[in-house]
Specification:
Blueprint: E1 11-23, E2 36-46, E3 61-64, E4 67-70, E5 83-86, E6 90-91, E7 93-97, E8 100-103, E9 121-124, E10 129-132, E11 145-148, E12 154-157, E13 169-170
Length: 171
Amino acid sequence: GVFKDCKALKNITINAEDKNIVIPASLFADCENISNINIRAKNAIICDSAFAGAGANNLKNFTLGCDAKIGSYVFSNNGALEHVIFNGQVDFEELVSKSSYTESKSVFYKSFLQQSDKETFVEFNGNTELILPEKCFSSTGYLNKIVYGDKIEYIQIGAYAFENTGISNLD
């Protein structure tokens, strides 16, 4: 990725409210000093491992303010992660070719690994239908809660989606 291993990055803000954006695979991978990510766009495609290890021990908050397709391992290896908020319709689908998708896997693998004095959560505010893929939250030891917004009408949970998690509450 273009910024892979960039230690100088501390915050990422993408403000493209009227545009469709694509965040390529591994774009911010291993940028270990990122503490906050905030993305606003019309629509987003976030490719495989785009934020894997970004803020490995520093990233606390990720907010996505648009509809999005999210690939495999996008948030993996972010041990300090505490809050992820999706305000649009989120589909865990990985881009295979220009217009072809397949179900993502292990999106949050090995994240939420640091004990926090705050409640840790992933919040889905924009989804009417939510399909959590295989091993979506696998090995997220201190993830406490998944919050589903008022719009939710259907939830499908893949195999091992909550394997080795600290989840005690599905709202």
